[in-house]
Specification:
mainly alpha, 3 helices
Length: 95
């Protein structure tokens, strides 16, 4: 049941990260929270399988904060890729 706390925390922080990262018009509103939540689920489950207890601070830091940091980095990369592809398309059309 503790995994739900990690998922809710990662999703909430993912929503905050969505609004802190520029280029919101180039991506969907659910992209960053979805990535953060999925990563938190994978990391939490993996660390539990490796034997890290629920009372360990490393489990929570890795699954919640680590997932949000990686989700924010992926979002920045996606926005940068989108800007480059849009500029290439505009140049090809002569706009």
């Amino acid at each position: 049941m503790y995994i739900l706390l990690a998922l809710i925390g990662a999703c909430a922080l993912g929503i905050a990260a969505h609004f802190m990262i520029g280029g919101r018009e180039l991506r969907g509103v659910a992209l960053t929270p979805a990535i953060a939540t999925a990563l938190a689920a994978v990391v939490y489950t993996g660390l539990q399988w490796l034997g890290v207890g629920e009372d360990s601070v490393w489990l929570w830091l890795a699954s919640v904060l680590g997932a949000v940091v990686v989700a924010a980095a992926l979002t920045v990369a996606i926005v940068a890729h989108r800007r480059r592809s849009d500029a290439t398309a505009k140049a090809a059309l002569g706009i």
